Amino acid sequence: MNSYSERKIFDPNDVRLFRVAEKLVGKIDKRAFDDELRCHEITRAVGQILKLPHQDGQYLFAAHSWLWIRPIEPNQTAVGKYPRILDVYAVGSLPQVQLLDTLVLLQRVGIVYKPGEERTDIKQHIVDELVRQMQSNRTRGSRCRACGCLTFGSICAKCKGEK
After folding, report:
1. Which of 2, 21, 7 is nearest to 99 (CA)?
2. Distance (Å, rounded) from C-alpha 107 to C-alpha 29?
3. What is the arithmetic mean of pLDDT over 9-38?
4. Looking at residue 84, what DSSP letter applies?
5. Which is more confident, 101 or 106?
6. Does the structure show a pLDDT above 60 at 28?
7. Cis status of the peptide bond prior to 95, with omega within 30 of 0
8. What are phi and psi of 113, to 5 degrees?
9. What phi-psi label fits residue 161: left (phi over 0), alpha (psi between -120 and 50 degrees) or beta?
10. What is the per-residue DSSP string for 11-78?
11. What tens digit of pLDDT does each residue of 141-160 get?
12. Buried b (16+ CB within 10 A) or exposed e, 54-74
């Protein structure tokens, strides 16, 4: 069944991006990352594949990152003018991937989703590995010869060695 939001609020392209993001996130083998997997890296990996801009900031009191469906204008301040949010690692919510309309839910941006400064602690090797997993047709990882962890691609996400 198509919900009211899918039929009336969201553009078909927004829904398409949401469905693709769900599939991409579903391909992640979290075992390959121990406890290192964070929203910041997942957001960047999905954004890189879908060519969507990311935003670092806060979700309530938690450091968080999400995607904008279209680029945000510099110094955006009018709450109702924000683009829609594609949150690929929603905080304390299911489903994990969510599409949010900021025109309908004005309080989401600025109060719940609060844009902030660009993070400087991004683990690029994890972003790269996530992109490899998401673009892979394989459904299972393999073991790294150097450290034994489960990994995809040719570089181990844990020790960064050749597998």
Report:
1. 21
2. 34
3. 91
4. P
5. 101
6. yes
7. yes
8. -100, 110
9. beta
10. -HHHHHHHHHHHHHHHT--GGGGTT---HHHHHHHHHHHHT--EEEEEETTEEEEEEESSPPPTT---
11. 555 666 655 554 555 555 65
12. bbbbebeeeebbbbbbeeeee
